[in-house]
Amino acid sequence: MSTKETNYVGQGRTFTFDWGTKECLSIKKADFDLLPVDNYGNVRIDVVKRKSPDKYGNDLSVVENTYVPKPKVDDLPFK
Q1: Tally of CB atoms within 10 A around 53
Q2: Residue 71 belongs to a domain
Q3: Domain annotation covers residue 12
Q4: pLDDT at position 3 over 60
């Protein structure tokens, strides 16, 4: 688990229909533009189910994905 502070960039709500569910997200453009871009040109975000909905019925949080893979170690003394 990372000790880095969570960067919340939006919220969302789950809607249920006869045919299934739909998750609708809302992200402010100004917040989205501040997110870092990875080596492939992608912005990485996570959608997290909240423990309980807020007063507006939002049951999802949108947060910055801060995962950084560990570098590969190619010079191990054994193979």
Answers
A1: 13
A2: no
A3: yes
A4: no
In a domain, 70, yes or no: no
- Quote the strand ranges of the chain, DSSP E: 8-17, 20-27, 45-49, 60-64
Domain that holds residue 15: 8-64
* Cβ atoms of residues 63 and 48 within 8 Å: yes
Establish if 69 belongs to a structural domain. no
Which token pair is 73?
């170690």
Q: What is the pLDDT of residues 12-26, one digit of tens each?
A: 999 999 999 999 999
Instruction: Return the DSSP state at 35.
Output: S
Q: Is 65:44 a contact under the CB 8 Å cutoff?
A: yes
Q: How far apart are CA 7 and CA 30, in angstroms?
A: 13
Tell me: the pLDDT tens digits for 32-44?
A: 999 999 889 999 9
DSSP one-letter code for 16: E
